[in-house]
Amino acid sequence: MEELTKLVQEINSVLWGVYCLIPLLVGTGIYFTFRLKFVQVRKFGKVLRYTFGDLTIFGKKAGKDGMSSFQSLATAIAAQVGTGNLAGAATAIAMGGPGAIFWMWIAAFFGMATIFAEAVLAQLYKSRDSEGHVTGGPAYYISKGLGSKWLAGFFSVAIIMALGFIGNMVQANSIADAFHSAFSIPTWIIGVLLALLAGFVFFGGMRRIAATTEKVVPLMALLYLAGGLWVLLTHLDMLIPAFKMIFVGAFDPSAATGGLIGAGVKEAMRYGVARGLFSNEAGMGSTPHAHAVAKVKYPAQQGFVAIMGVFVDTFVVLNMTAFVIFVTGAIDGSTTGIALTQKAFETGLGSMGYGFGFVAVCLFFFAFSTIIGWYFFAEQNIKFLFGVRAVPCFRVLVMAFLVLGSSLQVNLVWELADMFNGLMVLPNLVALIGLAKLVSKALDDYEEHGESAPL
After folding, report:
1. What is the Cα–Cα distance from 179 to 187, expressed in whole angstroms?
2. pLDDT, tens digit, for every residue of 372-419?
3. C-beta of residue 319 within 8 angstroms of C-beta of residue 137
4. Alpha carbon of 209 to those of 133, 142, 203: distances in Å?
5. Which of 199, 304, 319, 363 has its CA 20 to 30 A from that of 36?
6. Given this model, what pLDDT does residue 150 score?
7. How far is CA 439 from the centre of its chain?
């Protein structure tokens, strides 16, 4: 087991290193940013309009023709805003220093252009399954757009393993650990309850998934932001020093923490970009599954909505974690991951005595919503490979993996999740670059005919 873990770790060090996925993902974002003439800046008004213009947590029920644009966004954000926003930001800070957050911002800025392209292609190549339900995602634009069924199949297998099985084990493990630490509840009990709750949503199909995410996502975001804002308001004098730590740390990490974290610029950039991309999922090929089933007139409209997903994930939720850590002085040079976030909130909410419990509850919402989103993405690929008949069996298997993951603390599981996440990125990026002309054409078509079109 240890030898296999080391092998997977070596693969991940290459995949997620500074010479493979990091430059490929950022490079793709830079390419689309210039090709689409900074769409994430010049069309940000449209992003706000199409996201919030028809906002409701009680939208029309999703059906065979898909779901509303906001429900699609909520499903995408459910997957994007997960444990990475609590643990990932803290890990980046602990390993790369405060400057890692600056590089997270850079990655997210360019990632907005990438995710626009993903959503547009998902809309252009969406299809229907054997029962007439709308479906779509990278496997569909890889097979139909690039004409490569083999590459599409590789992507489908990778995402089913990365998100449907292994990734959801990791999420279940995070929930179980947090509740065991905060409330001393046995991990297996949490696993069983989590599987039953998730199964209730899974077996309700697209309709129940859409209804769940459109309510859970706004609720969990407001809860977390409210707690974070309380901490920031009670530590207002530390906000300016926090910004200074970020900008100084981006180019001189040791100066930002007085040598407490011995990271260099290379580490700040590496961990900031890597954890940022891992959190907002731009270019990874996951969120297009949600955007494919949105009911819009122009594909570019859903591209604008997709941009908001990256914005919320990084510039709102992830930033809140980072600033709470900075203003509370939680950085000690040794604590990392979710423990660092818990320490920060325990300090910030200490007088109220809610720190660890607050993080545990938020982690539940974040991780549970990610489980729902990731299941939905993987399900579309089960349909692509095996057809609709295989879906019920897949649902039961995912529930079993949730129970197993809640009690299984094995480093190999975490490493395998990173590896399969990396493998599914490669065919998606090939498709994005190969079909870039269609993305540009879709944006041009919207600018020519749909500028005043309602969502």
Report:
1. 8
2. 999 999 999 999 999 999 999 999 999 999 998 888 766 677 778 788
3. no
4. 14, 25, 9
5. 319
6. 94
7. 22
pLDDT tens digits along 198-237: 999 999 888 888 888 888 888 888 889 999 999 999 999 9
Percent of all residues in the chain with a pLDDT value above 90, rounded to a whole number: 43
Closest listed residue to residue 139, CA positions, set 159, 166, 167, 168: 159
CA–CA dist 200, 310 (Å, integer): 28
> Which pLDDT score is estimated for 450?
65
Half-sphere exposure of 93 (CA within 13 A, CB side): 37
pLDDT, greater one: 249 or 160: 160
Please tell me the distance from the alpha carbon of residue 253 to that of residue 266, in angstroms, as a whole number. Answer: 10
State the Cα–Cα distance between residues 64 and 317, nearest whole angstrom.
32
Write down the residue that tokens 């919207």 correspond to: 446
Residue 136 has what DSSP assignment? Answer: -
**How far apart are the C-alpha atoms of 261 and 93, rounded to whole Å?**
9
User: Cα(427)–Cα(429) distance, rounded to whole angstroms?
Assistant: 6
**Is residue 29 within 8 Å of 425, Cβ to Cβ?**
no
**What are the structure tokens assigned to 289, written together?**
């599954």
Q: Does residue 205 sit in helix, strand or coil?
A: helix
Q: How many CB atoms lie within 10 A of CB 242?
A: 20
Tokens found for residue 16: 């997620």
What are residue 128's DSSP bridge partners? 134
pLDDT value of residue 201: 92
- Cα(72)–Cα(206) distance, integer angstroms: 10
Contacts of 101 (CB under 8 A, 6+ apart): 89, 92, 93, 246, 249, 272, 319, 322
Q: Tokens 């930001």: give the residue.
A: 89
Spatial CB neighbours of 326, under 8 Å, sequence gap ≥ 6:
98, 238, 241, 242, 245, 246
Write out the two tokens for 268.
């700040």
> Which of 60-64, 83-87, 363-367 comes out lowest in average pLDDT?
60-64
The residue written with tokens 């969406």 in the block is: 126
Structure tokens at 272: 């900031």
Largest CA distance in the chain: 61
Nearest to 301 by CA among 81, 111, 57, 53: 53
Question: How many Å separate Cα 72 from the centre of its chain?
Answer: 14
